Batch of 4 targets.
Target 1
Amino acid sequence: MCYHSRSMTAAGRIEELRAEALSAVASADTTGELESARVKYLGRSAELTEIKKSIRDLAPEDRKTVGAASNRATKEIEDALAGRLDRLSAAEREERLRSEALDVTLPGTPYPRGSLHPSLRIIDEVVDFFVGLGYRVAEGPEVETDYYNFTALNIPPGHPARTMQDTFFLDEGLVLRTHTSPVQIRTMLSQEPPVYVVCPGRTYRRDSDPTHTPMFNQIEGLAVDEGLSLSHLKGTLAAMARQVFGEGVKVRLRPSYFQFTEPSVELDVSCFNCGGADPNCKVCRGAGWLEMLGAGMVDPAVLEEVGYDSERYTGFAFGMGPDRMAMARYGIPDLRLFFEGDLRFLRQF
Amino acid sequence: MRVPLSWLREYIDFDLSADELAGLFSLRSQEVDGIQRLGVLDGEVVVGEVVEFGPHPNADRLSVAKVDLGGREVQIVAGAPNPYPGARVPVVLPGSTMADGKKLKKAKLRGLESYGMMMSERELGISGEHGGILLLDGGYEVGRPLADYFPVGETVLELDVNPNRPDLWGVIGVARELAAILKTEFRTPEPRLVTGGSPTEDYTLRVEAPDLCPRYDLRRVSGVTPGGRVPLWMRRRIHAAGMRPVNAVVDATNYVMLETGQPIHAFDAAKVRGGIVVRRGRGGEKMTMLDGHTRTLDKEMLVIADEERGLVVAGVMGAEDAEVSDETTDVLIEVATFAGRNIMETSQRLGLRTDASGRFERGLDPNMVSYAMDRVAALICGTSGGRVAPDTLSHYPEPVGSWEVPMRLERAELLLGMTVEKDEAAERLGLLGCQVRGEDGRLVANVPTFRRDLEREADLIEEVGRLVGLENVPEVLPGVPLPGGLTPSQKKLRTLRRLLADLGLHEAVTYPFGPDRWKRSLGPGNGDAAPLELRNPLSAEASNLRPSLLPGLLDAAARNRHFGARGGALFEVGHVFETREQPEGMREYALRYRLTGETGLDAEVPAALLMGVEEKTRVAGLLAGTVRPAAWNASAGTAGFFEAKGVVERLVPDARFGPGDEPFLHPGRSAAVLVGDAEVGWVGELHPETAEKFDLAGWPVAAFELDLGAVEPDPEPRFRPFVNVPAVAMDLAVVVNRDVTVGAMLDEIGALGSPMLAETRVFDVYEGEQVPEGKKSVALGFTFQAEETLTDRAVKQELDSVSDRLRAAFGAEVRGG
């Protein structure tokens, strides 16, 4: 009787503890409270644990009942704890993330941003185009001799063409190069045809007004090979113009005069902005065409001067102004801005 | 060259608008710079006769006229006071469009109706004269359109004539060119001379400088009515072509120059003493010229003189002495050809360019002289009633004849890259004035002497190509038989520039010449070489070629500061220049090399030495003021030594830094940049004095400059094996004397040669209360790494050997145990 009653009492107590525990789990609002509930009802010194420990002291017939009841209760409480923990920790994580939220509209940590000069951006692009065709890049000094800058280019002393290029003079026989053409001469003197080179660089003329600066950039090119003709010149430069100004542009040739080419031409590019459709176009001012470069077939006298057989070889040469190309492409109104080192200008490129 | 279209139409018929003509001329011949319009563009101008003329009742400065327009009388309000009853005046009717594009309307001026406008010479495009209404003589019939007498409007083509085409400096040449473009005919006026004048041989002609004067013709026109003016139709042409009317004789010479391209001079024969002498200037000879300036002539200038004095600087400008005036009745006309180069040089030395010198310096055709002489003599007779002498004095010892140039059609097709028809080519060359014949499958052109630019086959090919039309040239991309590409150093330059931009520097391109301040303020630091100077700088402020990129960047920084910038970082890659001293006696070779390209007898002499210039490519950076603005989570970066050094270390990975000695840098905050033992540049803060001179006082400024060859922004990578054993990090703080450099400490640690020590970092340098006076604390962080897991003992041992080494070398005390 006694044992029976004891076992009945134990079972009842288990049931009470189970109900108490489940209620405590359900009402725990934080993982901390939940942990306290776990310690209280399932911990080492919890009453339910004590009951389980005392099972071996029970009458054999009671052991089974009480054991089963306590195991069931334990399992039930554990499940409730686990379920509650999931919910609570998810809520707490959410709360924590909420509290960690930033003002994402604040600017990011600044990384430096410099710039490349607009003319040199154009030069790089044009050079890359010609390199892709198989050209190499030739360079030369900016202080040149009278011979390389003029005479070798079929502009002998006293020639009127010399006065067209207002020249800066240094010590006798030395000038600041008025074009990068002497680089072509130096190139031809150093190798046999075929020659395919572009020569970018700074050039100088004694000229200063709103549309001329005493220094400016040039890209010249030279091709000498067997069988080269004006059509190759036109095809090459048309492809270049499309690279720089867009697939849609057209080119046209006009006759011109340069002492080191014959025939000499100028190449116009159809306006990449309006295509000639806008009489008030800011880029071409309604002309529909932009004067892009001077070019021509290398004068036989120049080929002979560097020791090439002008019957066997022909060639074409061209020269363009990357500063003016940059003005057209980026919408820069004033050439003088290019050489002032003005950060308000440079930062934009 | 300004070409009035009404003038051009006298020699050639064409059915093109001005815009079409300009477009066509640009595509076939010379560029057309613009189209200018003068006078009345569209509308009606009639000859009126003033019936009444009196003051405007409501305005002091205005007058009112009643004008008979031939059967009807209109009221016109005028601003000019010169008309009078009975005067014949040009009247432009309402509805007409003027040169500026404005349309004339019936108007009320101060309450009175005004029907049209009486016109000044300027409004009609005859001259710049705007002082009063043009008064017409009795020959103009009242009521007739003025256009029956001369064009009331003009369109002028502004040709940009290439220097090889002096033939296009005259309207006749332009007509010939247009005829070749249009495949049509052109005509030239036939001079009609009134002879019976006094003989030219009353004067003598002596050419003492035949090398500078291939041809000189002199002819006399006598009995000229003094003070005459040329007719309106001539004056308006001269004006439209851009010259000013002077007097009848001078206007005739200018007219023929504009027509033929041949400049002409006229002397008052009465003032010429004895005869004409063509000679070189005498040393110190002075001449007071028509522009009122007295100039000193030299012995290379050609002078047209009489037996006593110089009268004209040949081909450039005349003196006041023997000019034709309003009293002149007897004229000596000079039509000559001079050596173009000599005229050009004279004109440059005198600083005097004229319409005549501009034409002569291109080299004119001596065979043009006779026609121009006849033409001008005929015009003077026609406009001023003179009579032409029976004889011409002529110096033309070596007549120039035409020459033959062959042209192969296959060569033309090769150069032009398009089909060239033989008949077409022959016709075009013929239209240009050549006599062409076919011979052995090629064309042979007999070239007229006015086309001295047509010397060679390629010259003819160009003519054919452009006249046929360059739009017919196809676009063909040639196959280049070579592998292209950038050289390693060109690639490196690209990477370098991109890297500097990515580090926050802005690429500048600055002028390589600057003021004396550049050289004074930078001191003699760039070796002993003399700076290079321009002989003809644009201003004294721009004569020194830079020996360094720094001064240009400093000027830019000062400008930026002036514009309100708080600071910034610039870089530039460019050439720097220095004089290269030449050995004794090399001058002669140097000059020959510079002028002829020949390296001289001694081919061993390097060309660079003959240049006498050392030119190098360098890269420089300049950090000034605030280089990185503060952000909400980052503090501002200010220019300083270590900012600049950091960039240099990025550009030259193996750089070492030695004592710097550039005078323009802060002596205690600058260093020489070394690679191996070679000095490749410098880095440092600007000397305060330099900063002051460049208007940068008070701003922190640091800079660097490096030889491009030493820069290695993206070194070729080399794989080093690594192990998966964890590395051990240890710190060590030591106290040393203040003057011990961290560099020396790091060198000592490196000299240990520890196989375990993978990396050393300096993470703190401290001076202050925590360490004794005259000492500093240097905190170093080490990373140890080996093939197998390191024991605490092994690491401790290694760290001890580091501190032992530092103690032995510098007396370093380990801080905090």
Target 2
Amino acid sequence: MSDEDLLSDNEEERRSAAARMFDIRRVIGGLFVVYGVIVTLVGAFDGSAAIDKAQGVRINLWAGLAMLTVGLLFLLWQWLSPADAPEPTGSSGEDVENGGGDASVR
Amino acid sequence: MREGDGVDGGLRLDLNWLDYVLLTLYFVTVLGVGFAARRAIRTSVDFFLSGRSLPAWVTGLAFVSANLGALEIIGMAANGAQYGIMTTHYYWVGAVPAMVFLGIVMMPFYYGSKVRSVPEYLRLRFNRPTHLLNALSFAVAQVLIAGVNLYALALVLDALLGWPLWISIIAGAAIVLTYISIGGLTSAIYNEVLQFFVILAGLIPITVIGLVKVGGINGLFDKVRDSDLGEAGLHAWANTGSSDNPLGAHWLGIVFGLGFVLSFGYWTTNFAEVQRALSARNMSAARRTPLIAAYPKLFIPLVTIIPGMIAVVTVQGLGADEGDLVYNNAIPLLMRDLLPNGVLGIAVTGLMASFMAGMAANVSGFNTVFTYDIWQTYVRKERSDEYYIRVGRIATVGGIVVGIGTAFIAAGFSNIMNYIQALFSVFNAPLFATFIVGMFWKRMTAAAGFWSLLSGTVVALATYLLYLGGALPFDTDLEESFWGAGLAFVTVLVAAFVISKFTAPKPENELRGLVRGLGGIDLKGDVVAGDAAWYRSPLLLGGIALALSLLFYIPVW
């Protein structure tokens, strides 16, 4: 491939994936909400052995609530500002949206 | 004493079904990301560079996560236990300035020239021999390091969970193989972002409970003062006028050896890192990638070095030459002593995630360089795009199979991680020197590019081999790597200058967009709405990161 090809190819290929990409915020949010719920429940029923091991800190409870909060924040973020890459509204509109959304896609 | 509890079981952790549920959930999610990312792959650029479509916060966290591998977490906690606060140099001098430099100064050339890899830049700037030399050495180094990551993962799982080495090696390899060969770089990057948060979720509880145990940060410092490490373990720069400090390093060595040559070499020319920025969606996001990564990097010492120091004052006998109480086990020992089931499962998951993050970065860097820079450039040109995606998938399998092989070779050496790290830094220093001259001096010729890179590598390698053979009496591995890198750097500068005087430079129109001062780079051409906001200014982001790295030193001067 010559260098000229390389440049023009890249320009055409740019962003072709963006419209089809799923949102990682949903994955992080989902996993942390599940982790948060499980670990919080564990923490709520922790016996004295577990609490003593953690130097008297109810670490499962606190860590669980913290993870739950982080997870919910990610989901909230995604809900408030959905993918700010080109909108995933289907393949037909990709080019138009790229052209419109980004002042000048070279 | 609680510390005695685990003696009979060694390092073995007491995981219950719940911890395994948490672990399983994670790996199901990781594989799910791989399969979901597959839908987004239509072109080779989608597979190798995520279609250059990712937002800066994603590439930035992946950038930091690609470095947050096994060596980093286990190794930096071990250094924290052994050297104390001086270990922060690996972050505040040894990483942040280079990341800022990459984002502000170098990224416009990388991203603006539309190269798909670091070796490809060398082909455009110099010539094909330079390109091939770098592509081959990078590919070999990545596979070797992937093997070491795999072996380290297996060692930890053997110690913590009692899994046989070969099962861990093959299971770890299979998971990374699956999600990268299916989902390409998007899958690697998305998983790195996920890993970043899981790793933190595992490390933060260790740090918090550890600090409670020693009576907060003041209690920790008091106890370190009374330990073998002593007052010296609480200062970053004290007594660096000589080598009479825990690290045994002079401030000149810290600033120029670690902070300049080694760190700039690693952060600015290592494609496993730079690739994350190349997958960003535009110039602004690419430049912000290492700058956003610099912020977590500033704070990571809190969850690596602090636990290391906690371990040295709470685990009696830590620092043994062999056995369970070696410094490398600082974090696993704290997990054993402090974490109840639940957060324990999260911490084990985080640790496994960090091994995979490191290995996935190596593998995804390798398959891109192998496909674009070796196969497409020198073996099979002008094939269809689908053909190269297929080559990329096969290269992923091949790289991992060879990685498994090197993991078993690594098992034969006691201290392989030090060697690989030293060798790798030795390859990076001459590469960085070649880059920095080539990017800033348009007169540097193509021949000078090849011969200076080769001679720098040979000098660095010779220094290392002579040290191993006993001919060069350096005190520590660290001192050797400072000197080897420094000598390689100077060799490249001299060779580049001398050879350029006697050979013809490339015409300036071929160097536009590749060399500073010739124009050809459009910093604003692809901006999206919001990129003009003041808080997205690379200069501002970089400046604040640098200022923080200086400020953080003040309390631990």
Target 3
Amino acid sequence: MAETTQDDVVFRPKPSLPPPPNTVGVVGWLRKNLFGGPFDSLLTIVGVSLIAYVAYSLYQYGIANAVWEADTYRECLDVTKGNGACWAGVSTWMNGYMYGRYPDVEQWRVNLAGVVLAVWLAPFWFPKIKAKILVGMSAVLTFPFLAAHLFLGGEAGLFLQVMVAVAMTLFATVWLNVGASYLGYPSLRVALLRLSGFENKGDHLHKYVLLGAFGVGFVIAFAYQSTWELAAVPTQNWGGLFLTLVISGIGISSALPSGIILALGRRSKMPVIRVFCTAFIELFRSVPLITILFMAVTMMPLFLPVEINPDKLVLVIVAVCIFAAAYMAEIVRGGLQAINKGQYEAAQAMGLNYWKMMTLIIMPQALKVMIPNIVGNFIGLLKDTTLVSIIGLYDILLMAKASGQDGKWLGMHTEPFLFTAAVFFVVCFCMSKYSQHLERTIGGGYGRR
Amino acid sequence: MSLETLDSGQEHIASAISDEVVIELSKVNKWYGEFHVLKDIDLTVYKGERIVICGPSGSGKSTLIRCINRLEEHQQGDILVNGVTMDTNLKNIDAIRRDVGMVFQSFNLFPHLTVLENCTLAPIWVRNTPKAEADRLAMQLLERVKIPEQAAKYPGQLSGGQQQRVAIARSLAMNPNIMLFDEPTSALDPEMISEVLDVMVGLAESGMTMLVVTHEMGFAKRVADRVIFMDQGEIVEQNTPGEFFNNPKSDRTKLFLSQILAH
Amino acid sequence: MAVLEKGSPRRQSRSIIEWLNDERVRSVLYQAIVAIAVIAVARYLFVNTSENLQARGMSSGFDFLSGTAGFSIAWTVLPYEAGDSYFRVYLVGIVNTLIVSLVAIVFATLLGFIMGIMRLSKNWLISKIAAWYVEILRNTPLLLQILFWFLAVFSLLPPPRGSFGLLDMFFLNNRGFYMPAPVPGAGFDYTMIAILLAIAATYAVAVWAKKRQMATGQQFHTFWVGLGILFGLPILVFLATGSPLSFDFAALKGFNFQGGVSVPPAFCALLLALMIYHSAFMAEAVRAGILSVSHGQTEAAYSLGLRPGMTLRLVIIPQAMRAVVPPMISNWMNVVKNSSLAIAIGYPDLVAVYMQTSLNQSGHAIEIVAMVMLFYMSVSLTISMALNYYNKLVQLKER
């Protein structure tokens, strides 16, 4: 049959021609996306006028007619006649929006804790670092103690002091590990063994060397932290964005583990456990957060022994954690359902027991599927944290509201709310964009071949 | 496999070409953005003619037949279908689509309607056919594609081959005079391909004008009046199946045939 | 091996460890531990609670429900006086919650559909506008939006003397929104009957048109004819009986408006905030639902000769609804739940009048919190039952 011979017609493809000019480039794009027909063009014109109007109004209000320096809202109004923003009030109150009534001279403690957390978690994004679990777990488990001590100040109990020292030692470990990796050691462990000269001695000694190093670090940290003299700042003085982040941060970091436990309980084959978990989840998902907060503040003190009088902030945080766990449980359940039954069967066929199957095979896959929903839930939780203002905690929203009810700035409502809205928008929008990025980079590994 | 085994025991069915032109493309050009997907296509199709279009993926063959019922818009050149010019006039587009049926690679049955409802939807709402009449016609067609017993089921309950036969019946229900097939068997398991091809052969025997994009060379050999080979957006070669398979003119065609028939 | 060991002494002296390794024993054991733990915690809480109640000299039980509430409520739908009982307060709160939620749900759904469809527009600018609308509203807290509308918009409106008016019928000022109240006169019953008749007639026409189309194939413009009947018949009857409906217009008397129907600024702010905030989420549900119908469906319909309008009506919408309705319904549930934020601006919803004011007055924290939770749980249960029913109804049949 067909064999290539000399008298074949040789196929020479015609050259590709550029498309007609009105279908590509700026003109083509405009024709296709903005002026596809008479109705389309009308819509575009309406849209452009709308945007121009909004942008112009915002410019007039926020920049052209705005007042940047004034001592009272009256002064602002005298200048703007109500047509411009009074950013002077916002900048005067800025400290309150950020820290509430946290004493000025002590605010460095809040900043320090923030910087420590950022530095602690930074190795997450370093490409070379392997022990990311160590980074995450150490921060989630011990940073809260360090932060609590920094925020609260005053006399810390022995337990808190020990945990603070542990936190500091782990922090040092994380960064020494980073240093070791960049100096060319496979890990901090190897680096320590090599530097101490124990690498080639008996394996059973390695453990003691590492423990000894950790112990030395711990003693130094404990001695150092016992020299601290931090003035006590009661939780009543906490406020602003700082308080918002404390509450939502604890809620967010507790939500995933407790949500996973509840979800596994709900999918359990044991009826008693299943019923309890289902009831818990459904109860707290079906009522508004504000009723849970009220419940925490009014009913929880009744539930506890007479002599205990818990801090309001603690009650609120407990309520937020319960709420977040119930919602997260349903997300985790959805993620688990999305995992192919074959994965369970394969894991069992390999001889993994329940917990190994869950932690090694199922959860890593399910978590990737759930990333968008988890981050969406975190965003929701951050926004819902504002509800604590209703029961009188001075979070950023209540500070914004309060700033317009103060004598000097009486009547200033729009500006603080716009500022607060901008803060939330930036944080939440970045979180959702980052989750979409994660979804593409991590989650994308499955669909493609 | 060789061509001899392909056509063993299968006669080429009699052709029924008249000299009436039903589709005429002249100098048709199309771009996807900057990509020149159809280059100066000229094609004339006569009533009753059966054309098989083949070519490597990305050669523009699907785009070509999708331009014929304006699922794709061409940018230059003229397309005439049943004497109606394809332009931006909605009435013309409606008229063309009513008389041109199309079968898709992925079936595209309506999952929320039963098999019977899939077949009666367009006759009832486009041709204003009474329901009883539409039902009767649809049942006839379902018998013709050999699945009358599935009429009350939903598409999701059928196998791929059955779904594709329903899709053919659904198109025929509009009583079209031209049928377009866009790789109708590519999404099917091997054992289901023949049940769909059988239906298509039956359709060819009834004298339908057909344009079929497919890689089923046995079908082309048996049914086609003309085989068109496309590459890089142009028609490289067209000929009767006998000439096309046994005596291809272009080196590009030979390369393609050797690849597709190599195993 | 099992065969060899049968009856051997080792079998009798099965150790405890072996027994504990039995799957069934483990299961019972775990469940028993959990049950005991839960019961212990419950008992602990119960003992503490009764001690607490005793120490504070408080009683428990639902007797307080018949007691006089003694406080006034700023705005109610149900008639209410300060002398009414706590149970009445509960009902008043429920109705106030439901009314603002229902109105918000209707408007939010409409707005959500509009924004969701705009988001899918082929016009780049329109879809970008809708996208930013959704992003801005979804990424700022609802409570902030509520406070913004209340404090920065509705509270800054002019006093009644300078209120914004529309056609001298609708007025908006810092005391609220005023509309004319319809006052039916003698013979207005006929118009009401006509409305019912018109609804029945429209239904009949739709059935007839469907039947005729099935029989003869002819299509009928049911929509326009129905619209005509629906409005035409009542208007005709209304005019024929001598227009027996007057309106009680709100009018400025002294420092405030009198007459008409009015809603307070808190209602307006809450309604607007709920509606706009949730419309963003609903827009996303609509968008995702429509996108879930593959483009092949449109192509198949077009290739059969269906025009775009019919394709939308017969092919796309029936399929998209399956994907849109479930998230839509859970959004409705969220509107009901989020209406509880009313408490922040003083709109007297269930949480504000019952969980706050009544609780502070009567001290029956447990009973009141339980009753409020019961309400929200029954709403949630009703809605999820409706959702399950719908899902069963539309579930696509697959192999």
Target 4
Amino acid sequence: MMENHDRVLEQAALWRAEGAGVALATVTATWGSAPRPAGSQLAVHADGRMIGSVSGGCIEGAVVVEAQDIIQTGKPRLLEFGVSNSQAWEVGLACGGRIKVFVERVE
Amino acid sequence: MHKQILDQLIKDRADKRAVALATNLVTGEEVVLYPSGAPKNELEQQVNIALREDRARTVETAEGEVFINVFNPPLRLLIAGAVHIAQPLARMAALTGYDVTIIDPRRAFATADRFPGVTLLSEWPDAGVAALQPDARTAIVTLTHDPKLDDAALHTALNSDSFYIGCLGSKKTHAARLERLRMAGFDEAALARIHGPVGLAIGAKSPAEIAVSILAQLTATLRGGAVS
């Protein structure tokens, strides 16, 4: 019995098998009080659907936007997110941590 | 990530085999690696460490930074006793990421109706626990209240590397249990491994609440968390 929230890779493969563009985001490093440890993953469907997580919900929106771009270009990217400040347009981690997220297309 | 690599990771996870993925963070190149008895290079050594610690890591190589992600087989929870508490405990433990097996020779208790989707082993607990070869990623909980069944499981559990052993029962029941185990030759260090009465003292009453207290204690033991 494997729970749905742990089935990130399996869901990525299912979406890919359906012919959709898919990207995989993985936390590769954290500093300070990051909500999810290195190795945590988020799969992103080209239409914006997602499964898994790379934070407590703070940066998933930004990662999905980057992932949709990477699904187009195929070029993997290492993203870095830091502490957010009060400016609403800036994406960051309210908890004060800093994380790196590697985003790649599933070929 | 190539589809073959994704498929390999999924297959290894389904087969419950420890596997690591090494990703070059500059080029995006990836390779699937397994624990190695005789590591041939620095990367294989680092993969061994990452799998042993169950923690992803980044290593510097001549070709740039390489991120090693680990996919260990799930933690296991062996429950002796297909009793009422085992029902919420099995479901909550599965949500928490455990691969759950319930061991009970009494066929009236260990039924698929009572435990949908859970692996049931209709064995005497000592044989059942031994057959599953508990290791350092395995927890064992006894719930039967019946010394014939619980003690049998405990003898095997105490001779394994399991990271958590818990026994349901009152303080009085537990004291009697420890006395029987002493008579059977287990020393104080072995007995100290047993959490009894099982679970954190949160005043749990219902089977589901008792399951929460057991899982909280399991998690605290696994992660080395402080219990306030």
